[in-house]
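Mods, move this if it's the wrong board.
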Amino acid sequence: MAQEIVIVGAGPGGLASAILLGAAGFRVTVLEKMTTVGGRTSSIEEEGFRFDLGPTFFLYPKILDEILRAAGTNLRKEVEMIRLDPQYRIQFGTGGKIDATPNPEEMERQIAQICPADEGGFRRFLDDNRAKFNGIRSCLERPFLGWGSLLAKEVISSLPHIRPWESVDGYLHKFFSDERVRLAFSFQSKYLGMSPFRCPSLFSILSYLEYDYGVWHPVGGCGEVSQAMARVAQRMGVDVRLNEPVEDLRFSGRRVTGVRTKAGMYHADAVVLNADFAHAMGHLVPDKLRRNWTDAKLETKQYSCSTFMLYLGVEGEYPDMPHHTIQISSQYRQNLREIEDLKVLPSEPSFYVQNACVTDPSLAPSGSSTLYLLAPVPHQTANINWQADKVAFRERLLVAAEAAGFSGLRKRIRYEKMLTPDEWENGFSIHKGATFNLAHTLSQMLHFRPRNRFEDIDGMYLVGGGTHPGSGLPVIYEGARITSRLLCEDFGVPSPVAEPHFNLESSITQEWGSIASKLASRAGSHC
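Not the wrong board. Structure tokens:
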């Protein structure tokens, strides 16, 4: 009889693990407390508007494509994908903008308009990070289960690329002298909830991946990717159970043996935990069973920032604004200090706006469009009372968005949903409302992070942003591959192998004509 695996949470890591473990022949049950799959990579659908709840950038599709190919399909078959160009617009409060594009000549032209001396840095940046990525990729694809993992040949060979003493911004000085240009290649550290002045230089590869592998929009939003993953998992025989929150776990000594919900007890030969790590430890695993990750130790850890969110259904369109806009505060360093050190609301926030209907008109009713506004803010702190402060901060953000190019926005709002760190913590079970999980400091990376084969509980495995390699969709997918391989190894089961690789970008580009025609037909009755 096949072993019983219970996955707690149907986020991207849980769904990827379910696909791989189902393909390996395990009997897999996924228990999800929400009424839909995806966790934060799900959709909000209200009054004809559809928004991504969390991630809106789809990067490095190669990993998810390989996971799907291990299940006998591929990403191209499951989700319509559009590569964006421009990838996004980055606007600087101190003046100037860059429409990021994978076209080297155009990027150099735009960089030269801001700082002529930095024009040649772009290709050198790409070349250096291409070599860095190839040098460290094996580290991101392997588990780190203790100090001994650092002695692996692949890890030792990657050390020259890691440079632990250097921040992303410090590293970028090799290529760009103007701080605005450096910010265009370092704001991606916010994907990890960190400042580019503190984020380890290793993560400069995040910006590089955008240019070599693309920034993609899944038609229907990133939530559609989660839906597709659930469909693939179910085809593999996985039982996905929604609206079934886990109430507690059963243990025999330090081994987890079962999962209980309102529907009853599920026997488990192993449990894969795909939930906010700190919150799950405090609510599901007794403190006395934890050696390395007790409640007291969790409180000493560093957590990422949080996000203030506005999901707006608006009348009309913003055809002159791109799919993604990043607005950088004119007081960027002060903005980061307010969030990370002072833990107060930023006086002049940096923010991000997704104007997805310029690419995908299916997301809104005819004559309307969707806007998604995100401002990084501190995680939960006594310095901020969100119930008292959220209205004024909302107004501050909307005024800034209007000045950034979304004119008349406040008068055009027809639907609105707001999320603050309060809702992230209490509604989505995220510890401190820290939406990017444990911070990616050097002391919380590799084997210092909770391990994929969880070191405190036998039979428990971790996926998601709280374990190695970290947060961000492609990184979480890779983490699911690592965890699934470990679990298969422990049960003596071969890991599923992906079918022969095909060129994802080429395949999607070839299908662009059919996708574009579909979007054009939708445009007649939508945005």
